[in-house]
């Protein structure tokens, strides 16, 4: 059974990689254990270049529950205003695009090879 010390709380959500890097530096310097989510896959198929990958959501910095207040104090205004994520409809369309377009391309190649 997981206790509260295993629970990680989100202290920063952003689409800005610079803010994530700064938060990592500040938290490391304070000796606060943290984890970062959704950073590396942001630029899958170039979607990260439009702000963030809507299929994955915003980048997140999480800390242990008992360190959350101290972490929020340390990063201060870095969290700033929480960016509004894309709607569920847009996220669904992105996932459909990521699955359907490659599948149609694969099937077109497969069918053209079968016709020859």
Describe this structure in words.
The protein is 42% helix and 15% strand. It has 116 residues and is of the alpha+beta class. It folds into two domains: 4-85, 2-Layer Sandwich (Alpha-Beta Plaits); 86-116. A three-stranded antiparallel sheet has the order 1-3-2, with helices on one face. The protein starts with 7 loop residues before the first strand and ends with a helix.
Short description:
The protein has 116 residues and is an alpha+beta fold. Helices cover 42% and strands 15% of the residues.
Q: How many structural domains can be distinguished in the coordinates?
A: 2
Summarize the biggest pleated sheet. Answer: 3 strands, antiparallel
| Strand neighbour order, sheet with most strands | 1-3-2
What is the CATH class name of the largest domain? Answer: Alpha Beta
CATH topology heading of the largest domain:
Alpha-Beta Plaits
* Gross geometry: elongated
The appropriate CATH architecture of the largest domain is 2-Layer Sandwich
Unreliable stretches, pLDDT < 50, 5 or more residues?
A: none
What is the helix/strand order?
Answer: EHEEHH
Strand content: 5-15%
What's the end-to-end separation, in Å?
A: 59 Å
Specify Rg, calculated over alpha carbons: 19 Å
Question: Mean pLDDT, rounded to whole units?
Answer: 79
Tally the beta strands.
Answer: 3
CATH superfamily of the largest domain: UreE, C-terminal domain
Output the structural class: alpha+beta
Helix content: 40-55%
* Multimerization status: single chain
């Amino acid at each position: 059974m997981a206790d509260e010390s295993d629970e990680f709380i989100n202290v920063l959500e952003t689409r800005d990689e610079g803010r994530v890097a700064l938060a990592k530096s500040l938290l490391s310097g304070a000796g606060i254990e943290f984890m970062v989510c959704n950073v590396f896959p942001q630029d899958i198929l170039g979607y990260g270049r439009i702000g963030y990958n809507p299929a994955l959501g915003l980048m997140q910095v999480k800390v242990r529950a008992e360190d959350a207040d101290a972490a929020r104090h340390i990063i201060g205004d870095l969290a700033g205003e929480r960016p509004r994520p894309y709607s569920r409809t847009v996220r669904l369309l992105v996932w459909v695009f990521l699955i359907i377009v490659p599948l149609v391309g694969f099937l077109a190649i497969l069918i053209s090879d079968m016709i020859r």
